[in-house]
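User: My collaborator sent over this chain with a note saying "see what the structure looks like." That's all I know about it. Can you take a look?
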Amino acid sequence: MKNSEYKMTKYWHKLDKERAQCDLCPRYCKLHEGQQGLCFVRANYGGQIVSTTYGRSSGYCIDPIEKKPLNHFLPGTPVLSFGTAGCNLACKYCQNWDMSKSREMNTLADQASPELISQVAEQTGCRSVAYTYNDPVIFLEYAIDTAIACREKYIKSVAVTAGYICEEPRKEFFAHMDATNIDLKAFTERFYHKLTGSHLNNILDTLQYVKHETDVWLELTTLLIPGENDSPQEIEKMTQWVAEKLGPDVPMHFTAFHPDWKMKNYPSTPMNTLIQAREIALKNGVRYVYTGNVHDKKGESTYCHECGERLIGRDWYVLSDWNIEHNGTCKKCGTQCSGVFEEQMGTWGARSQPVKLSDFR
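Assistant: Without extra context I'll predict from the sequence alone. Here is the result:
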């Protein structure tokens, strides 16, 4: 890719004759000419910060929306998912490290304009497009332009992110999103600093901003790692904070860790740890709590917080029961279930279908 093909960015400023500072995320990378930030995809070329991966993806796939995971946003529908390379966090346990930790441009196998992505989503029957696999914060310009193109076709946009972003770009980014799943990776600064190279308070600020200052549908995911963030005491504090600061209607997903990247010496998360975390969250007033990365039909399904009726049955990503009225209320007792629902559940199922956008050009 030639320098002239790089995408200009706007969240940066000049420090001196030799360096420019990226103001997209709280890392504030200070870069000399030709130097890349920790995220790998934003760099100083020609004395200004540019995006080096605009319009290029690590691949496209049609997934069930529950895989993001989003259980209360258009359940059962297909979502066109894609990411780029790089990441602005340094998670030692990254499950998508081959993309998020990649510093090789050949990882970006497919090229597509925002308009083509929206066209493919429409033609394949996808209700939404997800910016995922690596963190869309670092390809903010590409994600926003794609979201604008999708909105013209009434296709929703979903951000799967760690939420590590500065205030001004955060405002612009989420203004174009319809739903988001944000990782609440732990509830200690020690974990964030030691295992991700970031800071907890920045994430908590993003969560409160999205919940209270936008109309974006919000769900949370916490990957429970044995011995690092899975203690009952930490789950107590985390879920109490969520119920108090975000409210009881924000769904939480506790998912199982599998050894990967630089933490292959850790054991997988026991099922009992996930079940216990779910029980603690429910006890503390969080109404919708899920287990993930394991087969647990009870923990995957949605229940009415008032009468206990199973509203949406799930077996992995396959939906069964559907006891929700078109306005999102429980068919049994009429209590509102929070989320974005349609009159009927989607029928996409558990399929993950790779897509080559070149076939649609």
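A starting point for your reply to your collaborator: The mean pLDDT is 93.
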